[in-house]
Amino acid sequence: MVWIAVATLVASSKVLAHTVHQRDAVPTVDLGYEIHTATTNSTGQYHIFGNIPYAVQPVGDLRFSKPVLPVGNSSNVNNGSVDVMCMQASPAWLLANLAESYNISLAQFTEIFDNLLGQTEACLALDVYVPEGIFNNRIATKAPVVVWIHGGGFTSGSKVADSNPAGLIARSTLNNSEGFVYVAINYRLGLYGWLGGDDLTPNLGLYDQAVALEWVQKYIELFGGDAARVTVMGESAGAASIFHQVTAYGGAQQASFRQAIMQSPAFTVAENMTTSYELTMVEATRQTGRTVSTVADLAKLDSDTLKSINEAVVYNATDSGFVYGPSPDGTYVPALPQVLLAEGKFNHDVQVMVGHNSAELLGTTHVNITTQSDVSYYVQRLVPNISSATLNYILDVLYPATDYSSELVRAAQIGTDSTIGCSTRDLGLAFNNSTYNYLFAIPPGYHAEDIPYTFFNGNTSTLDDGVAVNEAIAYALQDYLIGFAMTGDPNKSPAGATVQFPTYGSEAQVIAFTSAALVTRTDDMDKPQCEWWQQAMVQGLFNLTTTATTTSKPAMPSHSYSSSGSRLPWEGSLLVGCAILWIVWFNTAWIV
């Protein structure tokens, strides 16, 4: 499975990333509130400023509060040697899959996961990777910046999980190119960052990300970065986060980044804020033996108890669910991002590159789906409270059984379209077909299988789902990502483009990464099913009945938008297990 492939990739590449030593003149940056020194990767010729606090830590009275930038003056020196991650949690259904891949019991794997090193509520930190040339010339010139937002279903993951940038940095400095500054951030997870309710600010994780980007605007020039040339990049929940940042406040506030790279932005309908709030309070009451009914009550609990509550709520999530995640709140998230796109309420000035994989959910859809009833149950779990009329329309008209080789493939396609694939098409249309869209179609093409290619470090023994990474394709993907991040055009990387990457255009063109070659083709998401999914969200999917939308076959996408309509009460993200596997591997196999 992809989780093992990513763990193998990071295991093999982590050695390179940590071939570091202190130089005679230690690279130092004074941030005012703290002084930071770096370690130097002599092989890759870049400095690593690790574990820089980008906000006042959300502990004590600040637990469940919006983040703010650090203040004050201090001569305290931080060498970044103590790595931190936010509190982790994962559902049992996912841990069971991962335990099976490790050939250990669920209980053993859960114990390892629950005791990962470095977990802390004081986790709002980031890492800055700076090529030596950029740092040495930081006074005279400024280089582009890439900010990585990790995935993990909004309940797990960290700034160092599945994302060693050594290969990207090396490609960015080819042919005497300036390269770029790479930043990776933590943000609050689980109930710490995504608990919603009337007595706290929802979506704190999004606010964390926003403050991290504000920190980049304020301080990145000290490292040689150009605050006017910032690209945010992420996969799965990270890409979903970027989707929310692009549509933040309905586009009423200017984005603190110029470009966005979204790899498989994942959204699925799940428990709403009220449900997750109630589940949290019930579990807190059960564990403490006293009534816990408000966030104020939660805030008084000790760290170990709150950690246990978070783990239990997520662990008991229903199949394919995670309980916590971004939710429309009327302010930061006025509505579902897909709805805001349709209504034109987003930051139009951002340039976008977006991708999806050819079989996103086929690798995670339950293998026991063999009948029409199984598919029906799957859709009802995917879209809780769906009306029978809407359910029947999805099964009989949009995805009839006769169109698919098996019920499993049918269910996986429904999941892929509704949670990931169609969102990439929605972005292309919303940005007037000016986006750069790609399809990762190297078999089997499961969710996250482009990540070993994104962070390929030149090691040809790197495996992706048990198959060696195609070096030529990996470099091609990296070059497109680098070109886009550095210039806004994926065709203008330091290495040059072998195949011209087209904009989406009126013909819905994408570049496809296949085992044989790079090819341009029509987007497989340019189809009536995707038109229907977005319009269903605009109109309020839970409330759909037997109307024109649900009783007639949708027209082919017209590459235009309508506006108006209500919204779904919740949307979340699909977790990929690679982050978990990497974190577990780091805690059990890499001792520094």
From TrEMBL:
This chain belongs to which protein, by name? Carboxylic ester hydrolase
Q: Which domain of life is it from?
A: Eukaryota
Q: Which residues form the signal peptide?
A: 1-17
Keywords for this protein? Hydrolase, Signal
EC assignment: the record states: 3.1.1.-
This chain's source organism reads Hyaloscypha variabilis (strain UAMH 11265 / GT02V1 / F)
Q: Does the keyword Methyltransferase apply?
A: no
Mind listing the GO molecular function terms for this protein? hydrolase activity
Where the record annotates domain Carboxylesterase type B, the positions are 40-530
Instruction: Say which family it is in.
Output: Belongs to the type-B carboxylesterase/lipase family.
Under the heading InterPro entries, the entry gives:
AB_hydrolase_fold, CarbesteraseB, Carboxylesterase_B_AS, Type-B_Carboxylest/Lipase
**Keyword Hydrolase found:** yes
